[in-house]
């Protein structure tokens, strides 16, 4: 009975992670060719309210462990607290309230993951999740191309690109970036316990890479190549290359980020070099947002209150300037700055930098492959938010993973240090 309950809990986690990728619901039940707004999804919030209720029951079952893990990082909770507090000054009170509650649930689920499963177990659960996304994406793109391929979206500009069971080709590309990291780490694992299943991990890695190519997402391709280069560099941090390797990592990140920005704005660059400027580049979006941000720079306009509809005065102002209905700011930091202001951006920056430092410390404290995952994911998060926006997002796999990584690192690094201390004590006793 105990084994059955543990299996059911893992199935619940995998399905929650699967739906947090935006898989299935929107493309099957919401998105229609004649719809005026495909972003309004009434089903997903209801589904996740149920998910978070179940999560609450699971947390109550092991509340001491949850509380122990949850108090390991104050900056992340401060950021979530600012999102909730923005109800007091938001330009969209009803929406910010609803999204704030869902954000709290999303964050709670991420902490639950860190409290319930080790980083290694989380990698395995993610592998199951991505296998679902990969297999269903191939089925939908081949057998149900009207769903699995981009067709009418964005005026047919991306017709033929694969999106699988995900809402957009670029989202599929970003998910497969994380998928390649998960499968690559599992495939190079030398622990021996899963050695005979290593070919499954390599197959998952290969299929994830194929989906990146079929999605035609240039950003995802650049991020993928950068992550592949970063893996051996991060492994080298376990050695004594304290000056050389950080410099090389900085150079690779700079080059990769620059390439991401340039490739994602090729139409803008082409017109800038030869013809009149158009609105195809993201710089016009950021310029319009900056004009708006400086009117309320400290606390912003409220969580999830900027990009909504013509009924929203802030959104209408931006859309009139841009002359098209832009869905988001195409930069995670810009969207965060607009929603929670300079204070919100500072709090996130402290949280992220602290996570990177902890990632390096934990990497050097363990020789296992899961020690590489936090830095790899944090690198992906940084690069993907140069031209997209996946920070502080409700019901999102990207935010769930950030939360679980932040808290998992804090706990497992503490355990690694305790183990090293005990081992040293035992060694000293044997010598004496």
Distance between the termini: 48 Å
Assign an overall shape.
globular
**What letter string, H or E per element, gives the SSE order?**
HHHHHHHHHHHHHHHHHH
Based on secondary structure, the structural category is mainly alpha
Number of individual domains: 1
Total of helices: 18
Low-confidence stretches: 34-39, 268-280, 421-425, 428-432
Largest sheet: none
Number of DSSP strands?
0
Mean pLDDT across all residues, rounded? 84
The fraction of residues assigned to DSSP E strands is under 5%
Structural account:
This protein is mainly alpha-helical and 432 residues long. It is 70% helix and 0% strand. It has one domain.
Comma- or semicolon-separated keywords:
432 residues, mainly alpha, 18 helices, 70% helix, disordered C terminus
Secondary structure elements and pairings:
Elements (H helix, E strand, L loop, with lengths): L1 H18 L5 H6 L12 H19 L1 H8 L3 H12 L7 H24 L2 H25 L1 H4 L20 H19 L10 H18 L2 H19 L7 H20 L2 H9 L8 H11 L19 H10 L9 H34 L7 H12 L12 H35 L1
Can I get a quick summary?
By secondary structure, the protein is mainly alpha-helical. It has helices spanning 2-19, 25-30, 43-61, 63-70, 74-85, 93-116, 119-143, 145-148, 169-187, 198-215, 218-236, 244-263, 266-274, 283-293, 313-322, 332-365, 373-384, 397-431.
């Amino acid at each position: 009975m105990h084994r059955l309950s543990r299996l059911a809990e893992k199935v619940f986690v995998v399905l929650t992670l699967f739906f947090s990728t935006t898989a299935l619901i929107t493309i099957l039940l919401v998105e229609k060719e004649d719809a005026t707004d495909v972003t309004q999804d009434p089903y997903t919030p209801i589904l996740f309210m149920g998910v978070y209720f179940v999560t609450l029951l699971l947390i109550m079952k092991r509340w001491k462990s949850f509380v122990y893990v949850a108090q390991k990082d104050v900056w992340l909770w401060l950021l979530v607290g600012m999102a909730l507090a923005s109800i007091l000054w938001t330009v969209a009170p009803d929406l910010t309230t609803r999204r704030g509650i869902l954000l709290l649930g999303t964050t709670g689920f991420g902490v639950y993951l860190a409290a319930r499963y080790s980083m290694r177990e989380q990698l395995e659960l993610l592998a199951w999740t991505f296998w679902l996304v990969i297999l269903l994406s191939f089925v939908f793109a081949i057998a149900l191309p009207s769903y699995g391929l981009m067709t009418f979206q964005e005026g047919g500009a991306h017709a033929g690109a694969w999106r699988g069971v995900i809402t957009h080709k670029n989202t599929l590309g970003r998910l497969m970036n994380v998928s390649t990291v998960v499968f690559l780490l599992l495939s190079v694992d030398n622990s021996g316990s899963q050695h005979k299943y290593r070919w499954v991990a390599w197959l998952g890695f290969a299929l994830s890479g194929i989906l990146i190519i079929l999605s035609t997402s240039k950003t995802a391709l650049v991020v993928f190549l950068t992550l592949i280069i970063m893996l051996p560099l991060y492994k080298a941090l376990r050695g004594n290359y304290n000056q050389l390797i950080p410099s090389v990592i900085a150079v690779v990140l700079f080059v990769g980020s620059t390439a991401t920005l340039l490739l994602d704005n090729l139409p803008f660059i082409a017109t800038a070099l030869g013809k009149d400027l158009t609105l195809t580049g993201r710089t016009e979006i950021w310029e319009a947002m900056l004009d708006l941000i400086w009117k309320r720079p400290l606390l912003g306009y409220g969580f999830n209150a900027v990009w909504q509809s013509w009924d929203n005065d802030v959104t209408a102002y931006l859309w009139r300037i841009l002359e098209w209905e832009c869905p988001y700011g195409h930069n995670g930091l810009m969207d965060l700055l607009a929603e929670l202001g300079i204070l919100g951006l500072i709090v996130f920056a402290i949280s992220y930098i602290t996570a990177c430092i902890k990632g390096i410390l934990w990497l050097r404290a363990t020789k296992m492959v899961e020690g590489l995952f936090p830095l790899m994911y944090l690198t992906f998060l940084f690069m993907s938010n140069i031209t997209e926006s996946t920070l502080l997002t409700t019901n999102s796999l990207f935010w769930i993973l950030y939360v679980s990584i932040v808290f998992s690192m804090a706990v497992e690094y503490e355990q690694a240090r305790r183990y090293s201390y005990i081992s040293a004590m035992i060694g000293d006793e044997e010598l004496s």
